[in-house]
Design a protein that fits this description.
alpha/beta, Oxidized Rhodanese, domain 1, 2 domains, 5-stranded parallel sheet, 3-stranded parallel sheet, 44% helix, globular, Rhodanese-like_dom_sf, ChrB_C, transferase activity, Sulfurtransferase
Length: 270
Amino acid sequence: MPAPNEMTPKQLMRLIGTPECPSLIDVTLSEDVAKNPYLVPGAAQHDHNDLSGLAAKLQGQSALIICQKGKKLSQGVAAWLASEGISAEFLQGGNLGWATTDGAPRVPLAAIPPLQNGQTLWVTRHRPKVDRIACPWLIRRFVDPNARFLFVSPSEINAVAERFNATPFDIEDTFWSHRGAFCTFDTMIEEFGLKTPALERLALVVRAADTNRHDLAPAAAGLLAVSVGLSRQYKDDQAQMLAGFAIYDALYRWARDGFDEGHDWPSNRG
């Protein structure tokens, strides 16, 4: 019988990428990480010996604890957090169980930029529209929930990146950018190992909207219209980004669960 504070990989797969996902905390030992250098999407590493620091970091948020096999480390940490009044579960089977679950993506640690004060730091052009909202959404939901994004003048991106050790994205001649016909959102899905049917379906819409190829996906015209509208509605790029996240949360659920649903006005009503 499953433990009352145990979550299965299948249950977690329904939560990852949504605002309802708990904080995912990976407490795998460093020697085990070296053998299997991947994370469950959205998971943050934390030393299992620093439990008070973890409790402070969570700030009362519910958590799912992950270790190599879903045994002593994750169960012990989850139980300790529960004793502090923090809602905590552990992942059944741990990282190894996740790795053998059909369709479960894994983020390679080598793809994640170095952390700055416990978070990845990114920089791009100001006044975002499509790719520069979609990419931060993808990173926050699937790679680093604490990621910070800087929006600056195009001429200052490289200097800001160098001065603040930030990772530039969605600008020419950088690693995290367009590649041929594919946009930066596509690049991130590829490099972060996030090729799921839902994200690839969403990526097609983002690509079509971002590259003015609305023939690729009917939803692209709507995404562009909403994106332009948000850019006119908000002067502050950070506020616009957060407002845009709600759009991508909805598009992700459409791409995952509702892409084949249509809507029409019945003509046979009396």
